[in-house]
From TrEMBL:
Membrane topology summary: Multi-pass membrane protein
Protein known as: Cation/H+ exchanger transmembrane domain-containing protein
Subcellular location: Cell membrane
GO cellular component: plasma membrane
InterPro entries listed in its UniProt record: Cation/H_exchanger_TM
Segments of this protein annotated with the region Disordered: 417-436
Organism: Streptosporangium nondiastaticum
Entry keywords, A to Z: Antiport, Ion transport, Membrane, Transmembrane, Transmembrane helix, Transport
Spans through the membrane: 6-22, 29-52, 58-79, 91-115, 194-213, 233-266, 287-309, 315-335, 379-399
Secretion signal span: none
Gene Ontology MF annotations: antiporter activity
Domain Cation/H+ exchanger transmembrane, residue spans: 13-399
GO BP: any one term: proton transmembrane transport
């Protein structure tokens, strides 16, 4: 390892260890983990100390970010619970079926109008990259106990599902751009690989792994430590197989998570693990959280730091409008007629935080040799960076304010639509790593 690379690793380790030591204290403040790691990335990147060189470290950096997103997709899919949709199904369904397409269209049109230098499908690609949301950027806003269950689960389910729904569109648009690594496969080839082969590989890997694990647990043949490690192998295996065959590692990992959880639930009861206390996904959840934090650090160094030197009024205007009008107007239209009160609509619309999916897809585009890679990367980086700051800072005070409003409104009107019969049936506490 070169001296420069050694200093970069030491700096990353110092940031990670330092945050770990004060993580509980910071969890009660407006300073979020994505804010800390993004700022640290800017500091150690070429715009700061220069310890992390995007050109020298491009391969490991992109591999880290892609691994983080694959693990997050696997865990998001595996932890989606049917009770989240039993009574409150209308919120995520409206956000995904109506709000997501409108957000993509609005982001693309805005990029076409405000960002010069983008040609062909590049504005649409920017709109797709900045459409998915990430609950980790404003965790308090999504997981605070005072927030009505239908809103908590609705936002969490949206974040867990929309990131994969945009991946096929992203792959097709990337293949449509001349000069990209996927362009030689053509749009038809990409559709076949992403929509057929990748889901099939994920289904086989996740489903078979879940069946074998459930039978092994029932027979008492699996050690608890290795039981928690198996999901890591399944997520990595499904993603690697898909990538090796020209498909999407992200789609394969996402489908594998669904299949694994479904097979595990349908299998023989383990007997030794009480219902609702299964910790099989604990290891992959914690590793996904760590890699996601490191990806924000990489984002700050590789994308955001250099983007700050290219700032101009058009980019800033795009970022502001993308975080407000492009998210909030489609959300308001999607929730029209839902009988949710205006404070709930506004709260749901504001906390459409951009995060890990957008920054990873932005890194993928930045690694491609296309004419619009730099302006696209700048717009994506500034939008995500501004979102990390604004949503992180506002999550604690707005969650507290909205929670107080809901408690007053629910006490005066028990039939409030947000209450959904007082909560969702079978609701279980979220994992600690998700609530911090």
């Amino acid at each position: 390892m070169s001296a420069g690379g050694g200093w970069a690793v030491a700096a990353v380790a110092a940031v990670t260890g330092g945050y770990a030591l004060v993580s509980r204290r910071l969890a009660l403040t407006v300073v979020s983990a994505p804010m800390v790691f993004t700022a640290a990335g800017v500091l150690i990147g070429p715009a700061g100390l220069g310890l992390l060189d995007p050109e020298r470290d491009a391969g490991p950096v992109l591999a880290l970010a892609e691994a983080a997103l694959a693990l997050v997709l696997f865990t998001d899919a595996a932890t989606v619970r049917s009770e989240e949709f039993r009574n409150g199904w209308f919120l995520p369904v409206r956000l995904l079926v109506v709000g997501l397409p409108l957000t993509i269209a609005g982001g693309g049109l805005l990029a076409w109008a405000l960002l010069p230098g983008l040609t062909g499908w590049e504005p649409a690609l920017v709109g797709v990259i900045l459409a998915p949301t990430d609950a980790s950027v404003g965790k308090t806003a999504v997981f605070a106990p005072r927030i009505p269950a239908v809103v908590r689960h609705g936002l969490n389910a949206e974040c867990g599902l929309n990131e994969c729904l945009v991946l096929p569109v992203f792959a097709v648009l990337l293949a449509a751009l001349p000069g990209t690594s996927a362009s030689h496969q053509g749009v038809t080839g990409i559709l076949r690989q992403v929509l057929l082969l990748s889901p099939l590989l994920g289904l086989v890997a996740g489903g078979l792994g879940g069946v074998l694990l459930s039978r092994s647990r029932a027979a008492g043949r699996v050690d608890d430590d290795w039981r928690r490690i198996l999901p890591l192998a399944l997520a990595a295996g499904a993603g690697t197989l898909a990538a090796a065959t020209g498909g999407s590692a992200f789609v394969a990992a996402w489908v594998a998570g669904f299949a694994f959880a479904a097979a595990l639930r349908a299998g023989p009861p383990p007997g030794s693990v009480p219902e609702g206390e299964d910790d099989t996904l604990e290891s992959v959840e914690h590793l996904a959280a760590l890699l996601a934090s490191l990806s924000f650090l990489v984002f700050g160094a590789v994308l955001l730091g250099p983007a700050l030197t290219d700032l101009n009024g058009r980019v800033v205007a795009y970022a502001v409008l993308s975080l407000t009008v492009v998210r909030m107007l489609p959300t308001a239209l999607a929730l029209a007629g839902s009988r949710l009160r205006p404070p709930t609509v506004a709260y749901t619309a504001w906390f459409g935080s951009r995060g890990l999916p957008s920054l990873v897809l932005g890194l993928v585009v930045a690694a491609e040799e296309v004419p619009g890679a730099r302006p696209m990367g700048t717009a994506i980086a500034v939008t995500v960076g501004l979102g990390v700051l604004l949503h992180g800072v506002s999550s604690v005070p707005l969650a507290d304010r909205y929670g107080r409003w809901y408690e007053r409104a629910a006490s005066r009107r028990p039939s409030l639509r947000e209450s959904v019969a007082g909560g969702l049936p079978g609701e279980r506490p979220l994992p600690e790593w998700k609530r911090r």
